[in-house]
Design goal:
Tetracycline Repressor, domain 2; DNA-binding; mainly alpha; Arc Repressor Mutant, subunit A; 2 domains; homodimer
Chain lengths: ~220, ~220
DNA sequence: GTCTATACCTCGATAGAC
DNA sequence: GTCTATCGAGGTATAGAC
């Protein structure tokens, strides 16, 4: 009597099982990110994955488990640039590097961005525990580092958390609101313009000792 | 044979009809903004409005018409601060005033913010025509004004459209991602801190002639 | 492991009494 | 104008053959 892979926690999986789970999650990312949790259907995911609907449910207990698995699995990669900030590095370089890496992620991984945006926008019903246990400690830690840089005078005084919000908001905007950006910018190279703009925006904010030029 | 109010285009409406349509739209704003279009149900809207489900459908042709009506009706109020930018005013004051008005709208009208965010995030299927006919001309016009200010040296050189994106993204972030902001900031006064942060962020970007202090 | 068939439910919309 | 009752589509999930 074969047990569903969804139920067998620690058991070893065959290559085909691993491959199918991957295909399902890839398809689910595509569908959930464009239609939201409620708007996505198992039919769409099955079609996208090239499997039958019952076969999907052989690998996952249900729609919700697919979604939660996806969120938790992608959060690590999504937060990698934040973890990569080096407390020993040059403060301005570290933060500007973070801005540009986040912007590149919006360009290269827009589906991930929209997946999280959809979830948080609706109150993060399936992610609050994870936000609390994973994101919050990481942000607290990073905030302390930035705070230290400010005290040392390596950065202009800034509230670390609001700074992070601004970086997230401005960079992810290009992925999350792409429909609107597309209408307003037409066919121009959005990414290059955005990179230059955000470079100016955050460098001016963070550079210590800026004053108005005497004329 | 009574005709549904939904069908009678130009006919005069009774006071009770006006009131009920208002109650339905108010309820719909609450429900659509927290669950998205697909996640919202007529049952929820009916319960929120204190009416029965068929009664809702006496006033509107269907779920979609309620949503479209809501979007088109609220877009005007939502864009008011942008229209309020005065080409004759002091450039820096006009733009900083816009930033603060947008931030106050995120605090006072978070449901409107999330309603639009949900819609645009999923490709704005029911709003692209309106974005094109209403938002785009307004943005083009405002961009020209800002461009002029830059040429006159009243502002630091800046791409007007990316500037607007940054203002929208940073201010609306506090409404759209409130669930995440709440987890990361706890019970502190978010609005006051955000206002101070955005004041610094955009004033530094836009002030002409900033240089690094000689020490 | 994967399929067809189907049970069962939720939801949008309608019928028809009042 | 508003209600109860209900239809039919579409959705998640399961049964059971292969």
């Amino acid at each position: 009597m074969p047990q569903s892979p969804a139920a067998q926690a620690g058991r070893k999986s065959s290559r085909i099982q691993v491959r199918n789970r991957k295909r399902i999650l890839e398809a689910a990312l595509e569908v959930f990110s464009t239609h939201g949790y409620r708007g996505a259907t198992l039919d769409q995911i099955a079609a996208e994955a090239g499997l039958s609907k019952p076969n999907i449910l052989y690998y996952f207990e249900g729609k919700e488990e697919i979604h939660v698995t996806l969120l938790n699995q992608l959060l690590d990669a999504w937060l990698a640039p934040l973890r990569a900030i080096d407390p020993q590095g040059e403060p301005l370089d570290e933060l500007m590097g973070y801005v540009h890496r986040k912007l590149e992620m919006s360009r290269d991984l827009p589906r991930e961005s929209r997946l999280f945006a959809n979830e948080i926008l609706q109150g993060a019903p399936r992610m609050v525990p994870h936000l609390d246990s994973v994101l919050k400690p990481l942000v607290d830690q990073t905030a302390a580092v930035i705070e230290g840089w400010c005290v040392q005078g390596k950065l202009a005084p800034v509230d670390p958390r609001h700074l992070l919000f601004s970086i997230w908001a401005t960079t992810q905007h290009y992925a999350d609101f792409e429909a609107q950006v597309g209408v307003l910018m037409g066919e121009v190279d959005v990414h290059t313009g955005a990179a230059a703009h955000l470079e100016a925006l955050f460098r001016r904010l963070l550079t210590p000792g800026l004053i108005v030029e005497n004329s």
